[in-house]
Amino acid sequence: MKRLTSLLLILSIVMATWGRDVKSFNDEWSFKKGPFPTDPILFQSGFDQRWQDVTIPHTWNATDMQNDKNNYYAGEAYYKKTYRPDASLKDKRLFLNFEGVSTVMELYVNGVFAGNHKGGYSAFTIEISKLLKFGEDNELLVKVDNTSRPDVIPINSTLFAVYGGIYRPVHLIVTEKVNITVTDYASPGIYITQKNVTSKSADVDVEIKVENKNIDAKDIVLKTTIYDMEGNLKLKKEATVNVLPQGRQFFTQNFTVIKPRLWQGLEDPYLYKVVTQLVANGSVIDEVVQPLGLRHFELKAADGMYLNGKKVPMYGVCRHQDWWQLGSALTNEQHDADLAIIKEVGATTIRLAHYQQSEYFYSKCDSIGFMIWAEIPFVNRVSTKEADNAKQQLTELIRQNYNHPSIYTWGLHNEVYTPINYTASLTAELDDLAKSEDPYRYTVSVNGYGDPGHGVNMNADIQGINRYFGWYEKKIQDIEPWIEGMEKNYPNYKVMLAEYGTEANIYHQQEVVGDVGDCCGFDKRYNETFATRFHEIQWGYIAKHPYLLASYLWNTFDFATPASSQGGVEARNMKGLVTFDRNLKKDPFYWYKANWSKEPVLYITQRRVTERENKITPVTVYSNIGIPQLFVNGVEVKNYKKGTTDVHYIFENVELKEGVNNIDVKASNKGQTFEDKILWNYAQGGNKSLNKDKPRENKNEHIGL
Length: 705
Fold this sequence. Notes:
The chain is of the alpha+beta class and 705 residues long. The protein contains ten helices and 44 strands.
């Protein structure tokens, strides 16, 4: 814990602490949302009314997008703030950095247009220096609109909620006239490239972009220092450079780290710190701090991921950022809570779907050691008008997150198809763009079709495929012949299972289930027992097929889907291992924890199927600490069989008594005894409504909504 704390102290602030001033700009905002009158006179006459005080992060859809199908406000809203810059700042440069505004915004300073941005998930920075009145009050007005539109991705809210608002933090950045670039797609202004990384040495190139807004050229000392995690100076370079007053200047400083301590994922997420400074007349006038994790990713077809030459498991989950009754307006505490749950389940890699997520989240993944798939929200539908915005958002994603060692691949699209020629061509262009921006990482695109050779596929380094056998199509077990078919037909391809999963409403319980889920509709029963069976079977197949270089559970957490109502719940996708409010971990969570985690797990399933109608029943136990001892009403039951993996124990033909039954399991590990207990109530005749008729199998291939 002490090591983690010191690590976070080093890396929690990515921007500079010297030279430039970075302040929170989140308090004392006012807010109002529409709809507004279309008549300009009526609009203006009522504009000063109905403002409410808010603090950023803020979204106006925190509840309405989560409660009812297609019953939420999407449209225009306004934020305003009064800012009085001190007169001493008159010769400085001032910027507003927005970490996330959804979806389209315009900024006005004292009624004058300052800048705009299209895209709800990437950061952006706007300079406001020349629009301010120093020593006086200034009005900052932000117009925000989250209406779906064909030229901004995602073009709809079908797969997930596109919450409106300034939902991530805002910063005021003050620099000197000579500074490390702040407005290069809101990047840190320095790009750290690592090459030839081994345990013997690593080559590190630090490219710095510098601007000079004086009227004449300036000689500046450019100094870059690399510190180890303990704060000891490792390497230093400095040089005097001449910064011209026209355009941006590019400078590179090269290092070779001898006998580096490598970033080894969860095993050893070792981070160096790179500090780049501009020095004038002996004083630091600007500084940017960035993480450096020295590592080399290599994906070997039909084999797996090698991190620094060592094969590591790709136990993957996906993450949507929204929380129940908070929407997307999260604090760092909520991000930390999500990361703690993901770490607990034993995941090693996270697909951050389907959009760029917060800077804080990527930084924490660096320090924890997760391997990250980062992607843009080119998802679900194609309009043929989104190409420019997709390229913009991909550029922002890469430049803003270039230095995060945890990221191993850039995601280009998810489940986008017709018109195929356009989509395939755009994906190829996005791949070229990603390689131009960052030739050192992989790219990935995702399809819902089972055939990797589909027309929009094979335009990236990795082909991701989403499959939901047993839920949207066919039977649970059909995943294995699908994998075997790819092994035969595409033996040298890099293929990942980008999504798989099934719904589970914790209030829908059932003792006995089949191989096909009760999908899909509001009146369907999305029972947890089926989800448990689904994951037990499918992970058993996935685990023994290294052809799939990684697999990603859809999803870690239940999330909002404002365009649908299913399984008795409005506007909710319940494929999460954990409930929307993060208060309950479903049975499948413990299945993966037992299979993936190094922490001891002993867990009895069907703990919420408390009312039992079958006198003779199996009891399923997950144990990664050896053979469990099962006691039913104080009597030991010994007749178990192994299930789909080594942690899967099924005690068959257990006989229940009338009334309350005590189910108790024990196991010992390294001198410590572990125990889990549940209660089942058996009544002869039971509640026959629990066991419905077997759902019909859907023969059609599911390719996405």
